[in-house]
Amino acid sequence: MMPFQKAQQNLLGRGNREALSKTPGQTEEQLVDHVSSAVENFQSFTLEQHVAELQQLDRNLYRAITAQQRVLDTMRTQGAKLDVPNGKLEDLRTELNLVQQKLVNAEKSYQERLGDLQKIYLALQALTGRVNADTLQHAQSALARNDTSLASALFAQVQEAEDEAIERAAQAAFERGIVAEGELDYSGAMDHYRRAVTLQPQETGYLFRTAVMARKARHYDEAQQLAEQLVQQEAQNYPQNVRALCRAQALLASIYKRQGEHKQSAALYERVLLVEQSLPDQETMETATTLSKLGELYDDMGLYERALTTFEQALAIKRKVLGEQNPSLADTLNNMATIYDELGRYSKALETYEQALLIKRRALGDAHPSLAMILNNMGIVYQELGKYREAEEKFEENLRITESQLGVDHLSVSDALNNLGIVCQEQGKYAVALEKFEEGLRITRNILGPDHAAVADTLNNIGIVYQEQGEYEAAKEKYEEALVITKVALGPDHPTVGMTLENIGVLLARHMHCPSTACRNYFREAERIFKQAYQNPAHPNRVKLAATMEEFC
Questions:
Q1: pLDDT at residue 74 in the model
Q2: Taking the alpha carbons of 454, 458, 463, 464 in that order, is the dihedral positive or negative?
Q3: Ranges of Polar residues compositional bias (predicted)?
Q4: H helices within 385-471, ranges in order?
Q5: Which among 37, 124, 238, 280 is most buried, taking Cβ atoms within 10 Å?
Protein backbone atom coordinates (compact mmCIF):
# COMPACT_ATOMS: atom_id res chain seq x y z
CA MET A 1 0.00 0.00 0.00
CA MET A 2 1.17 3.54 -0.79
CA PRO A 3 2.63 5.40 2.19
CA PHE A 4 0.19 8.32 2.33
CA GLN A 5 2.28 10.58 4.54
CA LYS A 6 5.40 10.19 2.40
CA ALA A 7 3.49 11.01 -0.77
CA GLN A 8 2.06 14.08 0.88
CA GLN A 9 5.47 15.25 2.10
CA ASN A 10 6.88 14.85 -1.42
CA LEU A 11 4.15 17.11 -2.71
CA LEU A 12 4.35 19.75 -0.01
CA GLY A 13 8.07 19.72 0.75
CA ARG A 14 9.53 20.86 -2.56
CA GLY A 15 11.59 24.03 -2.54
CA ASN A 16 12.93 25.31 -5.87
CA ARG A 17 10.79 25.09 -8.99
CA GLU A 18 11.99 24.71 -12.58
CA ALA A 19 11.75 27.72 -14.86
CA LEU A 20 9.22 27.66 -17.62
CA SER A 21 10.66 26.57 -20.99
CA LYS A 22 8.67 25.78 -24.05
CA THR A 23 9.35 22.65 -26.04
CA PRO A 24 10.50 23.30 -29.55
CA GLY A 25 7.66 24.54 -31.69
CA GLN A 26 5.25 24.91 -28.72
CA THR A 27 3.44 28.24 -28.51
CA GLU A 28 2.25 29.88 -25.28
CA GLU A 29 -1.33 29.06 -26.25
CA GLN A 30 -0.39 25.39 -26.69
CA LEU A 31 1.16 25.41 -23.20
CA VAL A 32 -2.12 26.75 -21.77
CA ASP A 33 -4.10 24.06 -23.62
CA HIS A 34 -1.76 21.35 -22.33
CA VAL A 35 -2.14 22.41 -18.68
CA SER A 36 -5.93 22.82 -18.99
CA SER A 37 -6.33 19.36 -20.51
CA ALA A 38 -4.29 17.81 -17.70
CA VAL A 39 -6.52 19.41 -15.07
CA GLU A 40 -9.72 18.17 -16.70
CA ASN A 41 -8.45 14.57 -16.74
CA PHE A 42 -7.21 14.70 -13.11
CA GLN A 43 -10.17 13.05 -11.42
CA SER A 44 -10.11 9.87 -13.55
CA PHE A 45 -6.73 8.56 -12.36
CA THR A 46 -5.86 6.04 -9.67
CA LEU A 47 -4.17 7.09 -6.43
CA GLU A 48 -0.65 6.44 -7.79
CA GLN A 49 -1.53 8.30 -10.97
CA HIS A 50 -2.93 11.17 -8.89
CA VAL A 51 0.37 11.47 -7.08
CA ALA A 52 2.52 11.40 -10.21
CA GLU A 53 0.23 13.71 -12.13
CA LEU A 54 -0.10 16.15 -9.27
CA GLN A 55 3.67 16.35 -9.03
CA GLN A 56 3.78 17.31 -12.71
CA LEU A 57 0.81 19.67 -12.33
CA ASP A 58 2.42 21.25 -9.31
CA ARG A 59 5.56 21.98 -11.35
CA ASN A 60 3.48 23.27 -14.24
CA LEU A 61 1.46 25.40 -11.84
CA TYR A 62 4.57 27.09 -10.49
CA ARG A 63 5.96 27.59 -13.96
CA ALA A 64 2.65 28.90 -15.23
CA ILE A 65 2.23 31.32 -12.35
CA THR A 66 5.79 32.69 -12.45
CA ALA A 67 5.71 33.02 -16.24
CA GLN A 68 2.21 34.48 -16.53
CA GLN A 69 3.24 38.11 -16.73
CA ARG A 70 6.18 37.28 -19.01
CA VAL A 71 3.87 35.39 -21.33
CA LEU A 72 1.46 38.28 -21.49
CA ASP A 73 4.25 40.82 -22.04
CA THR A 74 5.71 38.68 -24.81
CA MET A 75 2.29 38.26 -26.38
CA ARG A 76 1.65 41.99 -26.26
CA THR A 77 5.06 42.71 -27.88
CA GLN A 78 4.70 40.05 -30.53
CA GLY A 79 1.07 40.85 -30.97
CA ALA A 80 1.92 44.39 -31.95
CA LYS A 81 4.35 43.12 -34.58
CA LEU A 82 1.91 40.49 -35.83
CA ASP A 83 -1.00 42.88 -35.59
CA VAL A 84 -2.85 40.63 -33.06
CA PRO A 85 -5.92 42.43 -31.66
CA ASN A 86 -5.76 43.52 -27.99
CA GLY A 87 -9.04 41.69 -27.36
CA LYS A 88 -7.42 38.41 -28.35
CA LEU A 89 -4.59 39.03 -25.87
CA GLU A 90 -7.09 39.71 -23.09
CA ASP A 91 -8.92 36.47 -23.93
CA LEU A 92 -5.68 34.54 -23.64
CA ARG A 93 -4.91 36.18 -20.30
CA THR A 94 -8.38 35.30 -18.98
CA GLU A 95 -7.98 31.69 -20.09
CA LEU A 96 -4.59 31.48 -18.41
CA ASN A 97 -6.10 32.81 -15.16
CA LEU A 98 -8.78 30.13 -15.35
CA VAL A 99 -6.15 27.45 -15.79
CA GLN A 100 -4.31 28.81 -12.76
CA GLN A 101 -7.47 28.56 -10.65
CA LYS A 102 -8.11 25.02 -11.89
CA LEU A 103 -4.63 24.04 -10.83
CA VAL A 104 -5.15 25.48 -7.36
CA ASN A 105 -8.51 23.71 -7.02
CA ALA A 106 -7.02 20.46 -8.25
CA GLU A 107 -4.28 20.48 -5.63
CA LYS A 108 -6.77 21.38 -2.88
CA SER A 109 -9.10 18.57 -3.99
CA TYR A 110 -6.24 16.10 -3.99
CA GLN A 111 -5.12 17.08 -0.46
CA GLU A 112 -8.66 16.64 0.85
CA ARG A 113 -8.95 13.27 -0.84
CA LEU A 114 -5.58 12.24 0.54
CA GLY A 115 -6.69 13.18 4.07
CA ASP A 116 -9.89 11.15 3.71
CA LEU A 117 -7.95 8.12 2.52
CA GLN A 118 -5.61 8.41 5.49
CA LYS A 119 -8.59 8.40 7.86
CA ILE A 120 -10.08 5.36 6.12
CA TYR A 121 -6.75 3.54 6.29
CA LEU A 122 -6.42 4.21 10.05
CA ALA A 123 -10.02 3.08 10.59
CA LEU A 124 -9.27 -0.16 8.76
CA GLN A 125 -6.18 -0.71 10.89
CA ALA A 126 -8.37 -0.34 14.01
CA LEU A 127 -10.41 -3.34 12.83
CA THR A 128 -7.43 -5.67 13.13
CA GLY A 129 -8.48 -8.71 15.14
CA ARG A 130 -12.17 -7.85 14.86
CA VAL A 131 -12.77 -8.92 11.25
CA ASN A 132 -11.43 -11.56 8.90
CA ALA A 133 -7.74 -10.87 8.19
CA ASP A 134 -7.94 -11.68 4.47
CA THR A 135 -10.97 -9.44 4.03
CA LEU A 136 -9.17 -6.63 5.81
CA GLN A 137 -6.05 -7.05 3.63
CA HIS A 138 -8.13 -6.98 0.44
CA ALA A 139 -9.82 -3.77 1.58
CA GLN A 140 -6.44 -2.17 2.35
CA SER A 141 -5.03 -3.22 -1.02
CA ALA A 142 -8.06 -1.80 -2.82
CA LEU A 143 -7.69 1.43 -0.89
CA ALA A 144 -4.11 1.78 -2.18
CA ARG A 145 -5.63 1.79 -5.66
CA ASN A 146 -8.05 4.56 -4.66
CA ASP A 147 -10.88 1.99 -4.45
CA THR A 148 -12.92 2.50 -1.26
CA SER A 149 -15.76 0.09 -2.08
CA LEU A 150 -14.34 -2.85 -0.08
CA ALA A 151 -13.65 -0.60 2.93
CA SER A 152 -17.22 0.71 2.79
CA ALA A 153 -18.62 -2.83 2.66
CA LEU A 154 -16.44 -3.87 5.58
CA PHE A 155 -17.55 -0.90 7.69
CA ALA A 156 -21.19 -1.72 6.89
CA GLN A 157 -20.61 -5.29 8.05
CA VAL A 158 -19.10 -4.09 11.34
CA GLN A 159 -21.92 -1.58 11.87
CA GLU A 160 -24.58 -4.23 11.30
CA ALA A 161 -22.88 -6.56 13.78
CA GLU A 162 -22.63 -3.80 16.38
CA ASP A 163 -26.26 -2.78 15.85
CA GLU A 164 -27.30 -6.37 16.42
CA ALA A 165 -25.15 -6.53 19.55
CA ILE A 166 -26.78 -3.34 20.87
CA GLU A 167 -30.22 -4.76 20.15
CA ARG A 168 -29.37 -7.99 22.00
CA ALA A 169 -27.92 -6.04 24.94
CA ALA A 170 -31.03 -3.86 25.17
CA GLN A 171 -33.30 -6.90 25.07
CA ALA A 172 -31.25 -8.61 27.78
CA ALA A 173 -31.39 -5.51 29.99
CA PHE A 174 -35.14 -5.29 29.48
CA GLU A 175 -35.66 -8.94 30.42
CA ARG A 176 -33.50 -8.47 33.52
CA GLY A 177 -35.75 -5.58 34.46
CA ILE A 178 -38.83 -7.79 34.20
CA VAL A 179 -37.18 -10.40 36.44
CA ALA A 180 -36.15 -7.79 39.02
CA GLU A 181 -39.63 -6.26 39.02
CA GLY A 182 -41.14 -9.69 39.63
CA GLU A 183 -38.80 -10.10 42.59
CA LEU A 184 -39.95 -6.69 43.95
CA ASP A 185 -36.49 -5.24 43.38
CA TYR A 186 -37.85 -1.98 42.01
CA SER A 187 -34.53 -0.16 42.18
CA GLY A 188 -32.80 -2.92 40.23
CA ALA A 189 -35.68 -3.10 37.76
CA MET A 190 -35.40 0.63 37.08
CA ASP A 191 -31.65 0.32 36.49
CA HIS A 192 -32.16 -2.44 33.91
CA TYR A 193 -35.06 -0.69 32.19
CA ARG A 194 -33.07 2.55 32.00
CA ARG A 195 -30.22 0.63 30.39
CA ALA A 196 -32.56 -0.77 27.74
CA VAL A 197 -33.92 2.71 26.97
CA THR A 198 -30.39 4.15 26.78
CA LEU A 199 -29.30 1.49 24.30
CA GLN A 200 -32.43 1.72 22.15
CA PRO A 201 -34.28 4.98 22.91
CA GLN A 202 -36.37 4.57 19.76
CA GLU A 203 -37.95 1.33 21.07
CA THR A 204 -41.37 2.48 22.32
CA GLY A 205 -42.00 -0.78 24.18
CA TYR A 206 -39.00 -0.12 26.41
CA LEU A 207 -40.07 3.48 27.01
CA PHE A 208 -43.60 2.42 27.98
CA ARG A 209 -42.50 -0.27 30.45
CA THR A 210 -39.85 1.97 32.01
CA ALA A 211 -42.34 4.82 32.48
CA VAL A 212 -44.85 2.43 34.07
CA MET A 213 -42.16 1.11 36.42
CA ALA A 214 -41.10 4.64 37.36
CA ARG A 215 -44.73 5.47 38.11
CA LYS A 216 -45.08 2.29 40.14
CA ALA A 217 -41.98 3.19 42.15
CA ARG A 218 -43.40 6.73 42.44
CA HIS A 219 -40.48 8.36 40.66
CA TYR A 220 -42.97 10.71 39.08
CA ASP A 221 -40.61 13.25 37.51
CA GLU A 222 -38.75 10.52 35.65
CA ALA A 223 -42.00 8.77 34.74
CA GLN A 224 -43.37 11.99 33.27
CA GLN A 225 -40.21 12.62 31.26
CA LEU A 226 -40.29 9.10 29.81
CA ALA A 227 -44.01 9.27 29.04
CA GLU A 228 -43.61 12.64 27.29
CA GLN A 229 -40.78 11.17 25.20
CA LEU A 230 -43.04 8.23 24.34
CA VAL A 231 -45.89 10.53 23.28
CA GLN A 232 -43.54 12.50 21.02
CA GLN A 233 -42.30 9.34 19.32
CA GLU A 234 -45.77 7.87 18.84
CA ALA A 235 -47.05 11.19 17.47
CA GLN A 236 -44.54 10.97 14.61
CA ASN A 237 -46.50 8.04 13.14
CA TYR A 238 -49.99 9.47 13.69
CA PRO A 239 -52.64 8.61 12.52
CA GLN A 240 -51.42 5.15 11.49
CA ASN A 241 -50.76 4.26 15.14
CA VAL A 242 -53.64 6.15 16.72
CA ARG A 243 -54.23 3.45 19.36
CA ALA A 244 -50.57 3.49 20.43
CA LEU A 245 -50.65 7.27 20.73
CA CYS A 246 -53.79 7.07 22.87
CA ARG A 247 -52.11 4.55 25.18
CA ALA A 248 -49.06 6.80 25.54
CA GLN A 249 -51.22 9.84 26.32
CA ALA A 250 -53.27 7.84 28.82
CA LEU A 251 -50.06 6.82 30.57
CA LEU A 252 -48.96 10.44 30.78
CA ALA A 253 -52.40 11.41 32.11
CA SER A 254 -52.10 8.77 34.85
CA ILE A 255 -48.76 10.24 35.90
CA TYR A 256 -50.26 13.73 36.07
CA LYS A 257 -52.94 12.27 38.33
CA ARG A 258 -50.37 10.69 40.64
CA GLN A 259 -48.69 14.09 40.96
CA GLY A 260 -51.96 15.76 41.94
CA GLU A 261 -52.31 17.56 38.58
CA HIS A 262 -55.98 16.64 38.32
CA LYS A 263 -57.08 19.25 35.77
CA GLN A 264 -54.19 18.48 33.44
CA SER A 265 -54.81 14.77 33.81
CA ALA A 266 -58.54 15.10 33.14
CA ALA A 267 -57.95 17.23 30.05
CA LEU A 268 -55.60 14.64 28.58
CA TYR A 269 -57.88 11.68 29.40
CA GLU A 270 -60.82 13.53 27.84
CA ARG A 271 -58.77 14.15 24.69
CA VAL A 272 -57.93 10.44 24.51
CA LEU A 273 -61.59 9.53 25.01
CA LEU A 274 -62.71 11.81 22.17
CA VAL A 275 -60.28 10.12 19.79
CA GLU A 276 -61.27 6.61 20.90
CA GLN A 277 -64.98 7.39 20.56
CA SER A 278 -64.40 8.74 17.04
CA LEU A 279 -62.94 5.44 15.80
CA PRO A 280 -65.13 2.89 13.97
CA ASP A 281 -64.70 0.33 16.76
CA GLN A 282 -65.37 2.75 19.59
CA GLU A 283 -66.84 0.25 22.08
CA THR A 284 -63.58 -1.45 22.99
CA MET A 285 -61.82 -2.28 26.23
CA GLU A 286 -59.45 0.62 25.59
CA THR A 287 -62.42 3.00 25.66
CA ALA A 288 -63.81 1.32 28.77
CA THR A 289 -60.43 1.67 30.47
CA THR A 290 -60.22 5.37 29.61
CA LEU A 291 -63.74 5.89 31.00
CA SER A 292 -62.75 4.06 34.18
CA LYS A 293 -59.64 6.21 34.61
CA LEU A 294 -61.67 9.35 34.04
CA GLY A 295 -64.21 8.17 36.60
CA GLU A 296 -61.46 7.65 39.17
CA LEU A 297 -60.13 11.12 38.41
CA TYR A 298 -63.54 12.78 38.75
CA ASP A 299 -63.87 10.92 42.06
CA ASP A 300 -60.57 12.38 43.25
CA MET A 301 -61.73 15.85 42.19
CA GLY A 302 -64.96 15.47 44.18
CA LEU A 303 -67.13 15.36 41.04
CA TYR A 304 -69.03 12.33 42.30
CA GLU A 305 -72.11 12.36 40.09
CA ARG A 306 -69.98 12.84 37.00
CA ALA A 307 -67.72 10.03 38.16
CA LEU A 308 -70.68 7.72 38.70
CA THR A 309 -72.03 8.41 35.19
CA THR A 310 -68.61 7.73 33.68
CA PHE A 311 -68.27 4.43 35.55
CA GLU A 312 -71.72 3.39 34.36
CA GLN A 313 -70.64 4.01 30.74
CA ALA A 314 -67.54 1.89 31.29
CA LEU A 315 -69.63 -0.88 32.87
CA ALA A 316 -72.02 -0.95 29.90
CA ILE A 317 -69.15 -1.41 27.43
CA LYS A 318 -67.56 -4.13 29.55
CA ARG A 319 -70.82 -6.06 29.78
CA LYS A 320 -71.20 -5.88 26.00
CA VAL A 321 -67.61 -6.88 25.25
CA LEU A 322 -66.86 -9.32 28.11
CA GLY A 323 -70.17 -10.64 29.39
CA GLU A 324 -71.79 -10.47 32.82
CA GLN A 325 -69.33 -12.52 34.89
CA ASN A 326 -65.94 -11.20 33.82
CA PRO A 327 -63.74 -10.07 36.75
CA SER A 328 -63.21 -6.72 35.04
CA LEU A 329 -66.84 -5.86 35.73
CA ALA A 330 -66.14 -6.31 39.43
CA ASP A 331 -63.44 -3.63 39.23
CA THR A 332 -65.92 -1.10 37.86
CA LEU A 333 -68.55 -2.13 40.41
CA ASN A 334 -65.93 -1.62 43.10
CA ASN A 335 -65.31 1.92 41.81
CA MET A 336 -69.03 2.67 41.72
CA ALA A 337 -69.41 1.41 45.28
CA THR A 338 -66.65 3.80 46.33
CA ILE A 339 -68.68 6.70 44.89
CA TYR A 340 -71.79 5.56 46.76
CA ASP A 341 -69.69 5.50 49.92
CA GLU A 342 -68.45 9.03 49.32
CA LEU A 343 -72.00 10.21 48.68
CA GLY A 344 -73.00 8.73 52.04
CA ARG A 345 -75.10 6.00 50.45
CA TYR A 346 -73.54 3.32 52.63
CA SER A 347 -76.12 0.59 52.10
CA LYS A 348 -75.86 0.97 48.32
CA ALA A 349 -72.08 0.94 48.63
CA LEU A 350 -72.03 -2.32 50.60
CA GLU A 351 -74.54 -3.89 48.22
CA THR A 352 -72.40 -3.00 45.19
CA TYR A 353 -69.24 -4.22 46.91
CA GLU A 354 -70.97 -7.54 47.56
CA GLN A 355 -71.83 -7.85 43.85
CA ALA A 356 -68.21 -7.21 42.94
CA LEU A 357 -66.98 -9.68 45.56
CA LEU A 358 -69.33 -12.39 44.28
CA ILE A 359 -68.09 -12.03 40.69
CA LYS A 360 -64.46 -12.16 41.85
CA ARG A 361 -64.98 -15.25 44.01
CA ARG A 362 -66.76 -17.12 41.20
CA ALA A 363 -64.14 -16.23 38.61
CA LEU A 364 -60.92 -16.30 40.64
CA GLY A 365 -61.53 -18.21 43.86
CA ASP A 366 -61.52 -17.17 47.51
CA ALA A 367 -57.85 -16.28 47.83
CA HIS A 368 -57.15 -14.13 44.77
CA PRO A 369 -55.30 -10.85 45.52
CA SER A 370 -57.99 -8.78 43.77
CA LEU A 371 -60.49 -9.82 46.45
CA ALA A 372 -58.32 -8.05 48.99
CA MET A 373 -59.05 -4.62 47.53
CA ILE A 374 -62.81 -5.12 47.74
CA LEU A 375 -62.54 -6.45 51.28
CA ASN A 376 -60.44 -3.45 52.19
CA ASN A 377 -63.02 -1.05 50.78
CA MET A 378 -65.83 -2.81 52.60
CA GLY A 379 -63.82 -2.44 55.79
CA ILE A 380 -63.63 1.31 55.17
CA VAL A 381 -67.44 1.55 54.87
CA TYR A 382 -67.94 -0.37 58.11
CA GLN A 383 -65.34 1.89 59.70
CA GLU A 384 -67.27 4.99 58.59
CA LEU A 385 -70.44 3.49 60.01
CA GLY A 386 -68.66 3.03 63.33
CA LYS A 387 -68.84 -0.75 63.01
CA TYR A 388 -65.20 -1.24 63.97
CA ARG A 389 -65.40 -4.95 64.69
CA GLU A 390 -66.78 -5.67 61.19
CA ALA A 391 -64.22 -3.31 59.71
CA GLU A 392 -61.37 -5.02 61.54
CA GLU A 393 -62.57 -8.41 60.28
CA LYS A 394 -62.52 -7.23 56.67
CA PHE A 395 -59.07 -5.68 57.09
CA GLU A 396 -57.73 -8.87 58.70
CA GLU A 397 -59.07 -10.98 55.81
CA ASN A 398 -57.53 -8.52 53.39
CA LEU A 399 -54.16 -8.86 55.16
CA ARG A 400 -54.28 -12.68 55.18
CA ILE A 401 -54.99 -12.92 51.45
CA THR A 402 -52.36 -10.34 50.58
CA GLU A 403 -49.61 -11.97 52.65
CA SER A 404 -50.43 -15.45 51.36
CA GLN A 405 -50.49 -14.43 47.71
CA LEU A 406 -47.83 -11.72 47.53
CA GLY A 407 -45.52 -12.41 50.46
CA VAL A 408 -45.06 -10.63 53.78
CA ASP A 409 -42.81 -7.88 52.37
CA HIS A 410 -45.02 -6.70 49.51
CA LEU A 411 -46.17 -3.08 49.27
CA SER A 412 -49.79 -4.22 49.34
CA VAL A 413 -49.09 -5.78 52.74
CA SER A 414 -47.89 -2.39 53.93
CA ASP A 415 -51.16 -0.82 52.75
CA ALA A 416 -53.19 -3.51 54.54
CA LEU A 417 -51.21 -2.97 57.74
CA ASN A 418 -51.83 0.76 57.58
CA ASN A 419 -55.59 0.32 57.23
CA LEU A 420 -55.65 -2.20 60.05
CA GLY A 421 -53.63 0.22 62.16
CA ILE A 422 -56.16 2.98 61.54
CA VAL A 423 -59.14 0.93 62.69
CA CYS A 424 -57.20 -0.23 65.76
CA GLN A 425 -56.36 3.39 66.55
CA GLU A 426 -60.04 4.36 66.27
CA GLN A 427 -60.87 1.66 68.81
CA GLY A 428 -58.24 3.02 71.18
CA LYS A 429 -55.86 0.09 70.59
CA TYR A 430 -52.89 2.44 70.31
CA ALA A 431 -50.13 -0.09 70.97
CA VAL A 432 -51.50 -2.44 68.29
CA ALA A 433 -51.98 0.48 65.92
CA LEU A 434 -48.36 1.63 66.35
CA GLU A 435 -47.15 -1.93 65.83
CA LYS A 436 -49.05 -2.17 62.53
CA PHE A 437 -47.88 1.26 61.37
CA GLU A 438 -44.23 0.58 62.24
CA GLU A 439 -44.27 -2.74 60.37
CA GLY A 440 -45.86 -1.09 57.35
CA LEU A 441 -43.27 1.71 57.53
CA ARG A 442 -40.43 -0.83 57.53
CA ILE A 443 -41.75 -2.54 54.41
CA THR A 444 -42.32 0.74 52.58
CA ARG A 445 -38.87 2.11 53.37
CA ASN A 446 -37.19 -1.12 52.29
CA ILE A 447 -38.95 -1.16 48.94
CA LEU A 448 -39.35 2.52 48.05
CA GLY A 449 -36.63 4.22 50.07
CA PRO A 450 -36.77 6.63 53.02
CA ASP A 451 -37.92 9.71 51.09
CA HIS A 452 -40.95 8.29 49.37
CA ALA A 453 -44.46 9.75 49.60
CA ALA A 454 -45.82 6.47 50.98
CA VAL A 455 -43.37 6.78 53.87
CA ALA A 456 -44.85 10.20 54.62
CA ASP A 457 -48.39 8.74 54.69
CA THR A 458 -47.43 6.25 57.39
CA LEU A 459 -45.54 8.89 59.37
CA ASN A 460 -48.73 10.96 59.37
CA ASN A 461 -50.67 8.01 60.78
CA ILE A 462 -48.06 7.48 63.49
CA GLY A 463 -48.27 11.17 64.33
CA ILE A 464 -52.03 10.87 64.81
CA VAL A 465 -51.57 7.99 67.27
CA TYR A 466 -49.02 9.96 69.27
CA GLN A 467 -51.35 12.95 69.28
CA GLU A 468 -54.27 10.90 70.57
CA GLN A 469 -52.04 9.50 73.31
CA GLY A 470 -51.08 13.03 74.37
CA GLU A 471 -47.48 12.74 73.12
CA TYR A 472 -47.65 16.06 71.28
CA GLU A 473 -43.95 16.71 70.67
CA ALA A 474 -43.55 13.24 69.18
CA ALA A 475 -46.64 13.83 67.04
CA LYS A 476 -45.33 17.19 65.81
CA GLU A 477 -41.99 15.60 64.93
CA LYS A 478 -43.69 12.91 62.81
CA TYR A 479 -45.96 15.43 61.07
CA GLU A 480 -43.05 17.70 60.18
CA GLU A 481 -40.98 14.77 58.91
CA ALA A 482 -43.93 13.72 56.77
CA LEU A 483 -44.38 17.28 55.47
CA VAL A 484 -40.78 17.56 54.28
CA ILE A 485 -40.94 14.22 52.47
CA THR A 486 -44.32 14.95 50.87
CA LYS A 487 -43.26 18.33 49.49
CA VAL A 488 -40.19 16.80 47.89
CA ALA A 489 -41.90 13.66 46.63
CA LEU A 490 -45.21 15.11 45.40
CA GLY A 491 -44.63 18.83 45.12
CA PRO A 492 -45.65 21.71 47.40
CA ASP A 493 -49.22 21.91 46.03
CA HIS A 494 -50.26 18.28 46.40
CA PRO A 495 -53.43 17.63 48.48
CA THR A 496 -51.46 15.41 50.86
CA VAL A 497 -49.34 18.44 51.74
CA GLY A 498 -52.56 20.27 52.60
CA MET A 499 -53.75 17.45 54.87
CA THR A 500 -50.43 17.39 56.72
CA LEU A 501 -50.51 21.18 57.14
CA GLU A 502 -54.01 20.87 58.59
CA ASN A 503 -52.84 18.18 61.03
CA ILE A 504 -49.99 20.38 62.25
CA GLY A 505 -52.29 23.39 62.58
CA VAL A 506 -54.83 21.45 64.66
CA LEU A 507 -52.09 20.03 66.88
CA LEU A 508 -50.60 23.46 67.54
CA ALA A 509 -53.94 25.18 68.09
CA ARG A 510 -55.62 22.55 70.21
CA HIS A 511 -52.80 21.06 72.25
CA MET A 512 -49.64 23.15 72.13
CA HIS A 513 -50.98 26.67 72.79
CA CYS A 514 -49.43 28.04 69.61
CA PRO A 515 -50.15 31.70 68.70
CA SER A 516 -53.26 31.90 66.53
CA THR A 517 -51.39 33.68 63.72
CA ALA A 518 -49.02 30.74 63.21
CA CYS A 519 -51.89 28.25 63.23
CA ARG A 520 -53.83 30.31 60.70
CA ASN A 521 -50.84 30.23 58.35
CA TYR A 522 -50.96 26.44 58.28
CA PHE A 523 -54.72 26.41 57.70
CA ARG A 524 -54.66 29.08 54.97
CA GLU A 525 -51.91 27.30 53.05
CA ALA A 526 -53.92 24.07 53.30
CA GLU A 527 -57.02 25.94 52.10
CA ARG A 528 -55.15 27.30 49.08
CA ILE A 529 -53.97 23.82 48.13
CA PHE A 530 -57.43 22.24 48.53
CA LYS A 531 -59.14 24.93 46.43
CA GLN A 532 -56.63 24.32 43.67
CA ALA A 533 -56.94 20.52 43.85
CA TYR A 534 -60.70 20.13 44.40
CA GLN A 535 -63.12 22.03 42.19
CA ASN A 536 -66.13 20.98 44.22
CA PRO A 537 -66.53 23.05 47.43
CA ALA A 538 -68.37 20.05 48.90
CA HIS A 539 -65.32 17.82 48.72
CA PRO A 540 -64.85 16.19 52.15
CA ASN A 541 -61.36 17.63 52.61
CA ARG A 542 -62.57 21.17 51.91
CA VAL A 543 -65.61 20.76 54.16
CA LYS A 544 -63.51 19.35 57.00
CA LEU A 545 -60.92 22.12 56.73
CA ALA A 546 -63.63 24.80 56.68
CA ALA A 547 -65.02 23.43 59.95
CA THR A 548 -61.53 23.33 61.45
CA MET A 549 -60.82 26.94 60.47
CA GLU A 550 -64.16 28.04 61.88
CA GLU A 551 -63.23 26.41 65.17
CA PHE A 552 -59.72 27.82 65.51
CA CYS A 553 -59.61 30.96 63.38
A1: 59
A2: positive
A3: 1-11
A4: 388-406, 411-426, 430-448, 453-468
A5: 124
List, for residues 439-455, the tens digit of each pLDDT value.
999 999 999 999 999 99
Residues 74 and 138 in one domain: yes
pTM surpassing 0.85? Answer: no
**Residue 345, amino acid:** R
277 lies in the same domain as 289: no
Q: Provide the 10 A C-beta neighbour count for residue 367.
A: 12
CA distance 540 to 523: 15
* Whether residues 245 and 180 fall in one domain: yes
Task: Say how many domains are in the chain.
Answer: 5
Closest CA to 499 of 475, 513, 482: 482
| SS3 sequence of 203-269 | CHHHHHHHHHHHHHCCCHHHHHHHHHHHHHHHHCCCCCCHHHHHHHHHHHHHHHHHCCCHHHHHHHH
495 contacts 530 by C-beta, under 8 angstroms: yes
pLDDT digits (tens, 9 = 90+) for 49-68: 555 555 565 556 556 555 55
With 0-12 / 13-18 / 19 or more C-beta atoms within 10 angstroms meaning exposed / middle / buried, residue 513 is: exposed
Cα distances from 385 to residues 346, 350, 352, 381, in angstroms, run 8, 11, 16, 6
Q: Give a yes or no: residue 156 inside a domain.
A: no
C-alpha dist (Å) from residue 14 to 114, 126, 385? 18, 32, 103
